Amino acid sequence: MEGMNIMLFHSTYGLRPAVHAAADRLRAAGHEVQVPDLFEGRTFATFEEGAAYQEEVGRDELLKRAVLASAPFSDRGLVYAGFSFGGSVAQHLALADDKARGLLLLHGTADLDEDASADELPVQLHIADPDPYETHDWLTAWYLRMRRAGADVEVHGYAGAGHLFTDPDLEDYDAEAAEETWKAALAFLDTL
Fold first, then answer.
1. ∠ CA 132-100-163, rounded to 5°
2. How many other CB atoms are there within 10 angstroms of residue 3's CB atom?
3. Nearest-CA neighbor of 142 among 189, 103, 186?
4. CB 3.0–4.6 Å: which of 20, 79, 94, 126 could bond 103 by disulfide?
5. Which backbone phi and psi does 156 adopt, to 5 degrees?
6. Are 116 and 92 within 8 A, CB to CB?
């Protein structure tokens, strides 16, 4: 089976070892993976520090960096993926790219425009249950909007896990939930 071309975006903490480890895991399964650094070399020890940097740089500039990183690869049909903040970036790009092959969201989503179109785009979300940044009400509304936009959405919730539960260097880490996530994510990629 031919591997996917994956654009994997980091979280608010920046491009840390866990993101490279995830990329390596995807590469070992036969996929080509790009891991753009939207923070230009900066990483953060706390969510608050990373969020302050994001605010300083601005959402539009960060999305511009993501678009510029993805553009050289988009003709191949990318699977957009991301962790938390990176998931929201991935979602924005996937919905704007009519060649997108899939969307893999780890720990994060983004709002959708009312007229958003995701023409049968395969989407898989992995989220803590409950998640401090993605409430049940938010996720229900997000799911309904994604379906209305035409996406084929699959949601995996992990009871009791912390927000960024796939990152072994953070307190949120949950080894069992992380393994389940990667198993389901790799199976999802095999269907694309």
1. 15
2. 16
3. 103
4. 94
5. -115, 120
6. no
pLDDT at 115: 87
Please tell me the pTM assigned to this model.
Answer: 0.97
Residue 86 corresponds to which tokens in the numbers above? 């990176």
150 Rama sector, left if φ>0, alpha if ψ -120 to 50, beta otherwise: left
By CB atoms closer than 10 A (0-12, 13-18, 19+), residue 156 is middle
The residue to which tokens 């940044």 are assigned: 133
Tokens 């990667």 belong to 182
